[in-house]
Structure formats: C-alpha cells, structure tokens
Amino acid sequence: MRYLTPRKSAEGLGAARTGTHDHWFMTVTAVSLVFLVPCFVFVLGTAIGRPQAEVVLLFSRPFPAIVTALVAVVGMLHFARGAKTMIEDYTGGITRELAVIAANGVAYVIMFTVLYALGKMVFLGTLIEAMK
C-alpha cells in the first residue's frame, strides 16, 4: 500500500488541474500581444484612407499579412481562454457550459473570418500584381 500525504497528492495540481498551464498560456499570449498589437496598429494606420485596391495590395505583402494573422489567432485564443476562466469563476451548472461554448464559438468565428478575409486579400493582391 502506497502512502500519499495530502500535499504530495495535490502538488502541481490546482483545483481544476490546469491552473499552471492556463496561467502560462495567458502570460505568453499577453506578452506576445504586447509586441504584436503596436505592429498591427501601425499596419492598420497605413491602410486607413487608402482606396480598396491599395489596401488589398498592402495586406497581400508578407509583413502586414503575417502580423494581421498573428494578432487574430493569438488575440482570439487569449480571449477564449480568458473568457473561459472568467465564466468558470462566476457561473455554474448548465449556464457555465453554454457560456463557455458561446465564448469559444465567438472567438473561433472571428478568428476564421479574419483569416478568410486575409487569404482573400492575399489572393486578390497577387492577381492585381499579375495584371500590372
């Protein structure tokens, strides 16, 4: 028979058994967003006020496309995990499950919509460049 003290059985495990992983995930995504968001604001600022064809050409270049994709993916994953934590802290029962599903759904719909639009702009940008 193996004897485990309460401390030994709980060591490294939070109440949900994922607290450390969630904390590190949120920390890493937050730090990456600190660098990505100013780059994205700069890219978006250069696109404001331009005609549609110029905006499509701007986002078909590698740096603006990669920065936009990273902001969408990292930002929405950060949102989904943060919303899940908040929902778990303040709700219970079926409300908790439905709210987590809704938050994840919103995050993934936004993420895939941005990636689809970005892919379409990259494709159209290559067509515009080829027609020149």
From TrEMBL:
<dbReference type="Pfam" id="PF01127">
    <property type="entry name" value="Sdh_cyt"/>
</dbReference>
<dbReference type="InterPro" id="IPR034804">
    <property type="entry name" value="SQR/QFR_C/D"/>
</dbReference>
<protein>
    <submittedName>
        <fullName>Succinate dehydrogenase</fullName>
    </submittedName>
</protein>
<keyword id="KW-0408">Iron</keyword>
<feature type="transmembrane region" description="Helical">
    <location>
        <begin position="24"/>
        <end position="49"/>
    </location>
</feature>
<keyword id="KW-1133">Transmembrane helix</keyword>
<keyword id="KW-0812">Transmembrane</keyword>
<dbReference type="GO" id="GO:0016020">
    <property type="term" value="C:membrane"/>
</dbReference>
<keyword id="KW-0479">Metal-binding</keyword>
<keyword id="KW-0349">Heme</keyword>
<dbReference type="InterPro" id="IPR000701">
    <property type="entry name" value="SuccDH_FuR_B_TM-su"/>
</dbReference>
<comment type="function">
    <text>Membrane-anchoring subunit of succinate dehydrogenase (SDH).</text>
</comment>
<feature type="transmembrane region" description="Helical">
    <location>
        <begin position="98"/>
        <end position="118"/>
    </location>
</feature>
<dbReference type="GO" id="GO:0046872">
    <property type="term" value="F:metal ion binding"/>
</dbReference>
<keyword id="KW-0472">Membrane</keyword>
<feature type="transmembrane region" description="Helical">
    <location>
        <begin position="55"/>
        <end position="77"/>
    </location>
</feature>
